[in-house]
Amino acid sequence: MSDRLRIVARLASPLAGEAPELDALLEWAMSAHHKKDEPGYKVDRKFAAPELAALPIPILRRTIGGWPVGCCSSPIVAAEAETVEHFGKRLSVENARLLDPDNRRVVATTNSWTKSYRLPLRIRAVDRIVWFAIGERRSVQHTLKQVRALGQKVSDGYGRVASWEVESGAPDVCWFADGPHGRVLMRSLPAGDELPKNLVGYRTDFGPVCPPYWHHERYCERVVPC
User: Least crowded by CB within 10 Å, which of 19, 41, 48, 207?
Assistant: First the structure.
């Protein structure tokens, strides 16, 4: 039986990058229970995207605009402080002159594994991340126990999850919430006539509305919260 859920991830370290969408997080956790020859087990950008909704997850999906979208809000994050750090890579050439002249080579540092980069990384001091969803409370809690970190650079200690809380009886605000001037958008959805006429708090965009969110075949005209 499906309940209206409030899901809270309490963090023990700062969050790097962006918090994930709940349906993508659940699909990632469920993929560990599928064999390699089953659909949805593993996806790579060089391959076609898997069949829509190939992996079962313990929250409802509803079809809108031809896409099976999870009944869950985008992550709600309140940061106490924010900064930017950088991570990078550079091919070490300090000792190149010690090589025999006949063994020296020209190495490109703009592509392949020798490419140099220095990229910014958003870091936020976050106490908790909240999602609203419709699903099976016990199954959601059991599945999320496998998730021990969120965001980017988790191998460096960022985004460690101290505990998960899954509560029933939450308001139904997984897609829309009632506001003083209309219906407030709570997650990215396909643009179209199926959206409420009095929708507020959004902007138009081109991007994904269901997992895997990084795959180009999931892109469509959409509206996103702002």
Answer: 48
Per-residue pLDDT tens digits for 1-37: 689 999 999 999 999 999 999 999 999 998 877 655 5
Q: Please, is 68 exposed, middle or buried when counting C-beta atoms within 10 Å of its C-beta (0-12, 13-18, 19+)?
A: middle
Which of 145, 150, 147, 115 minimizes the C-alpha distance to 129? 150
Beta pairing, strands 182-185 & 199-200:
parallel
Count other C-beta atoms under 10 Å from residue 72's C-beta. Answer: 28
Q: Record the tokens describing residue 130, joined without a space.
A: 């909240």
The Cα 176–Cα 167 span in angstroms is: 19
Indicate if the alpha-carbon torsion angle 130, 135, 139, 143 is positive or negative.
negative
Alpha carbon distance 95, 195 (integer Å): 61
Helices 22-31, 137-144: inter-axial angle, 10-degree rounding: 70
pTM of the model: 0.86
Burial-class residue 175 by CB neighbours within 10 Å (0-12, 13-18, 19+): buried
